[in-house]
Amino acid sequence: MQALVIDRPRPVGESPLELVDLAEPQAGRGELLLRVTASAVCRTDLQIATGDLPQHRSPVVPGHQAVGVVAGVGPGVDGWSIGERAGTTWLAGFDGICRFCIEGRENLCRAASFTGWDRDGGFAEYVTIRASVAVRIPAELDDVAAAPLLCGGVIGYRALRLSGVGSGGRLGLYGFGASARQAIQVARHWGCEVHVASRSRRDLDQATALGAASVGGYDDPPPAPLDAAITFAPIGSVVISALRAVDRGATVVINAIHLDGIPAFSYDDLWWERSIRSVANVTRADAREFMELAAQIGISSEVEVHPLSSGNEALRRIESGEVAGAAVLIPGSTAGHLI
Questions:
Q1: Whether residue 181 has pLDDT greater than 90
Q2: Hey, which bits of the chain come out as E strands?
């Protein structure tokens, strides 16, 4: 089978993804074999490819937002049949016995493993995944539409829940990439008033089109203090901008696996029981609930489709900010297009 691998992280301009031929994997005990039909590209894939995140294995097939058709069912797997559609998330596995797993917080398991980082992911024609973390794809979502929801959508949904924002609350979204574009659709469905901050005029125009009540730059104060905020930009100074925009008792959630460092700031900005918290990974419940919600309310993301062989071009466009929504790789395709 054809697959993209990262052997040695390097700048995007040096094409860190290598197209190679690998043996088709087989479903082991507790696993499913998926024939990949669509695999979305995440900024985390970019960070692994360029070395911003350290390699956990080499070589590795990246990609943790893959949708496919079940082509094989390993021993010990119940509830899945050949021909069903399934998807992967960032969470590849967990021990199932620690206190976090027992409490339904397997995202915090110290033995957790991650798709496209600890085990081969979906930038390939086939991928094996543990059945325990496989996500069912609702019939209402086609493969290309579903793929970008499996990371950016699910982690954005978790960040919304951790923020504590409720119906009618004032929510700030700082940075407006693929994850924030999906989060605003959930927040608007919940009846929230949303303020979006970004450096990009294009992003602010898109936020307005998606129902943002107000928009501005990172340092522009919102019309009124926010009840909660989520930062999507991997820039520490943006966290402080969000903190200064929230009301007393509010929470700023950092939705990033990698941050360039939070600069020193005045304690006055944190005073009055404001808080900062991170969101780490996702749980199976997050994925199940969000995919059902996405199908119910019709969450969508602007998508540009690339053939698998153009993975480096997709990374370049993400790094440069040219991708307005999400980039999706299609095994076997030969041309890219927007949908």
A1: yes
A2: 2-6, 17-21, 31-41, 65-73, 85-87, 91-93, 113-114, 126-130, 135-136, 170-174, 193-197, 214-216, 226-231, 246-254, 275-278, 303-307, 326-330, 337-338
